[in-house]
Design brief:
By secondary structure, this protein is an alpha/beta fold. It has one domain: P-loop containing nucleotide triphosphate hydrolases (Rossmann fold). It contains six helices and four strands; from the N terminus they run αβαβααβαβα. Strands 1-4-3-2 form a four-stranded parallel β-sheet, with helices on both faces. Helix 5 links the parallel strand 3 and strand 4. The protein is globular.
């Protein structure tokens, strides 16, 4: 395995979404897990494959999305491309929850389609 060092701490900003994307099996989740093991931020890590996460972030229901993020400084969504309307859900998070940082990991849908 090739060791790579990235300082995600410098890239995540309050009320912004950091998108990490790339083909499957290139190390996105490994990079993220390494960062999370060192961060002092209170975070929630979820997967877009989780039906409950899909329902909440895909709903565009401001109160439901705000409640989902309550008490956290960082929300991390792996496999974010699995969530319908994820762009709008992320927008609600950063617009409605003060000082929240968000990281979304995804595989571009075109890459998924091309591999089928």
């Amino acid at each position: 395995m090739i060791k790579r060092y990235y300082n995600l701490e410098k890239l995540i900003k309050p009320n912004k979404v950091l998108i990490i994307y790339g083909s499957r099996r290139v190390g996105k989740t490994t990079l993220l897990n390494d960062f999370l093991s060192r961060t002092k931020l209170k975070y929630k890590l979820d997967s877009g494959n989780n039906i409950r996460v899909q329902q909440i972030l895909g709903s565009q229901d401001f109160s439901q999305i705000k409640e989902y993020a309550a008490g956290y400084q960082l929300i991390v969504i792996d496999e974010a491309q699995q969530i319908p309307n994820i762009g709008r859900g992320l927008k609600v998070l950063v617009d409605q929850v003060p000082d929240l940082r968000v990281i979304a990991l995804l595989v571009p849908l075109l890459l998924i389609w091309l591999k089928k």
